[in-house]
Amino acid sequence: MTYCVGLLLDAGMVLLSDTRTNAGVDNISTYRKMYTFVEPGERVIAIMAAGSLSTTQTAMARLGDAIEAAEADGENNAPGPARSILRAETMLEVAEIVGTTLSATAEEIGQRMGANAQSASATMIVAGQRRGGAMRLFLVYPEGNFIEATADTPFLQIGEHKYGKPILDRVVRADTSLEDAQKAALLSMDSTLRSNLSVGMPLDLVVIERDRQEIAISRRIEAEDPKYRQMSADWSEALRQAFTTIRI
Amino acid sequence: MTYCVGLLLDAGMVLLSDTRTNAGVDNISTYRKMYTFVEPGERVIAIMAAGSLSTTQTAMARLGDAIEAAEADGENNAPGPARSILRAETMLEVAEIVGTTLSATAEEIGQRMGANAQSASATMIVAGQRRGGAMRLFLVYPEGNFIEATADTPFLQIGEHKYGKPILDRVVRADTSLEDAQKAALLSMDSTLRSNLSVGMPLDLVVIERDRQEIAISRRIEAEDPKYRQMSADWSEALRQAFTTIRI
């Protein structure tokens, strides 16, 4: 499995993904699930992926091919799934291109897998902003359709989302600061890491500030990262402390 | 869905279940999922159920029928699935009777349901102690096999178990007091209730003390219960407070 979370806030967006992939419990690997695309000042796009690694890697490779093809031929601006996400007019169009590519890839791989087609499915979180447009955060379903984060529901999760949802439900609102949002995402991930072996370090953290078409923070957090370990230990201690104050 | 949790501690056992059942999101009802059987001083058994309501109700009715049949005929002590759980020699035998009854019921109902058989499955938590025997806590799978809680893994969950697992992972150990264990179970339930609509109030809480073949506490907690509401509000506040103390 996987755990990825994206937060859409007044101040910007925070994205966090783990890197564990597994086929069974005896075949565990580390793969980056966070992809970023930046044209400074023009547009910034970040994509996180959960589900079949074969499907997500192939879909991302196709999105990359389309970008290269468009770059090689400045006039090539074909619509449809072969369109470069860096030529899309809006973030909505980016989500549509990602959705079409993802569902077509999953269907193709699923057909080869026959009865096991279920395991070819994958989901993605697509975040970004184009100059002059709004910041947008989408969750793209395996079938290619998508939903969008709003002020009422300022975060979206894919993969093992349940363990880390309670803390987000309690502290994240649209007006949460980018620093608190990073903290909430990291604590949400920390709870998931502790309770589920199929989610694992290192982590990839990306922060995008509103109306700045660039990556403000891009940080890989290794298992032995001293600040992360301290935060994790502090949170355990704070939770235990909070627990002792409760009366039933 | 459902959320039920059982804790096996040095001091006794704590069991907590919600009462929500739903067929889709537009057909929601309240059903007790906690069943207790007591022969004071001789044995105490508690069973919690998650999954298909049709399967769990039928399985519980059959267990009840077997108890009545054995009571009506003092000599009737037939082995196998028709055996009364109040005639079982050990808690292990109780788990076996429950498992056999549960899997046979699910299979029968599943056959009638044909292609939808998956939805006939159910799981149960079986807890209890017989005079002279050890306290034991089992999780019975849909196929009738089971696992048992130990000092290393002092809690078992069925239903929507992920939201409420992080707090249990952090605070519950075999030497946790019965009061703290009730608190941990209630906070685990509280996180689940907040994040998942398919789990709902009221709650049923049962506490069994070690080597006392009786129910020490049996409490139904309604949605408007002032102590529960206070605990829930205090926990939210304590979590938010803890959150502010963390540095990343």
Q: Explain this structure to me?
A:
The structure is a homodimer of 248-residue chains. By secondary structure, chain A is α+β, with helices and mostly antiparallel strands. The first copy, chain A, has five helices and twelve strands. Chain A has helices at 53-72, 91-113, 165-171, 178-195, 226-245; strands at residues 3-9, 12-17, 20-22, 28-30, 34-39, 43-51, 122-130, 136-140, 146-148, 155-159, 203-209, 217-221. A five-stranded antiparallel beta sheet of chain A has the order 10-1-2-11-12, with helices on one face. In chain A, helix 1 (53-72) crosses helix 2 (91-113) and helix 3 packs antiparallel against helix 4 (178-195). The longest helix of chain A has 23 residues, at 91-113. The radius of gyration of chain A is 18 Å and the shape is globular. The mean pLDDT of chain A is 93.
Short structural description:
With 248 residues, chain A is an alpha+beta fold.
Morphology of chain A: globular
Largest sheet of chain A: 5 strands, antiparallel
Extended strand count of chain A: 12
Cα radius of gyration of chain A in angstroms: 18 Å
Which stretches of chain A of 5+ consecutive residues score pLDDT under 50?
none
Run of helices and strands of chain A: EEEEEEHHEEEEHHEEH
